[in-house]
Amino acid sequence: MSSRAVSPVRVAVLISGTGSNMAALIDAGQAADSGYEVSLVLSNIEDAGGLAIASAKGVATVSIPHKPFGKDREAHERAVDEALRAAGVEVVALAGYMRILTPWLVRAWEGRMLNIHPSLLPLYPGLDTHARAIAAGDAEAGCTVHLVTEGVDEGPILGQARVPVLGDDTPAALAERVKTAEHGLYPQVLTSFCKGLARA
């Protein structure tokens, strides 16, 4: 029997690639004082590298490729939602999930879906964040964890981490430093978020 007064919140991580943030979330969730555990890793890419990593860490995985659904994004999302609910998932963490979500899925998980974005929102929503920060002459860049809403990268901010922009930075070099910051920030914010959830 667990020594915890409250069982950890069951989290699903959605990925499309190698899942470095996913791995950081799994590892942090296995700590004794974590408020969550990653109980499922789901990908829209059948052979996403992160699925093997998650399996090696003892986490259940499922792939639901989007291509068979054609342009019907909501039909794909209904299959994703069914898998999440079948696994008893309570909170969804997007970690490099390269799909633009429909309002249907956003509403289905409203207030319980988080995302990490590689900029200091509201600066630079969307793509090419590191190149845009360098081009603007910013002294700092970073990452943001936020709740997912129907607007792209517009949801309430839950936490941020900052890194300096160096004089000789390239987008790739800056991206690596921001990625390291992400691996610390996302588990920290997810732990706080899950510990703060009101549960029956």
UniProtKB/TrEMBL annotation:
Q: GO cellular-component terms in the record?
A: cytosol
Ranges where the Formyl transferase N-terminal domain occurs? 10-190
Specify the superkingdom: Bacteria
Signal peptide annotation: 1-23
- EC assignment: 2.1.2.2
UniProt-listed Pfam families: Formyl_trans_N
Annotated positions binding (6R)-10-formyltetrahydrofolate: R73, M98, R99, I100, L101, N115
GO function terms (MF aspect): phosphoribosylglycinamide formyltransferase activity
Q: Which PROSITE patterns match?
A: GART
Sections of the chain in a coiled coil:
none
Q: Name one GO biological process term.
A: 'de novo' IMP biosynthetic process
Q: Catalytic activity, per the record?
A: N(1)-(5-phospho-beta-D-ribosyl)glycinamide + (6R)-10-formyltetrahydrofolate = N(2)-formyl-N(1)-(5-phospho-beta-D-ribosyl)glycinamide + (6S)-5,6,7,8-tetrahydrofolate + H(+)
Active-site positions, per UniProt? H117 (proton donor)
Key words, A-Z: Purine biosynthesis, Signal, Transferase
The entry marks the following residues as binding N(1)-(5-phospho-beta-D-ribosyl)glycinamide, namely G19, S20, N21
Family, similarity comment: Belongs to the GART family.
What this chain does, per the entry, is described as:
Catalyzes the transfer of a formyl group from 10-formyltetrahydrofolate to 5-phospho-ribosyl-glycinamide (GAR), producing 5-phospho-ribosyl-N-formylglycinamide (FGAR) and tetrahydrofolate.
HAMAP family (alphabetical): PurN
Task: Tell me the protein's name.
Answer: Phosphoribosylglycinamide formyltransferase
State the species of origin.
Brevundimonas mediterranea
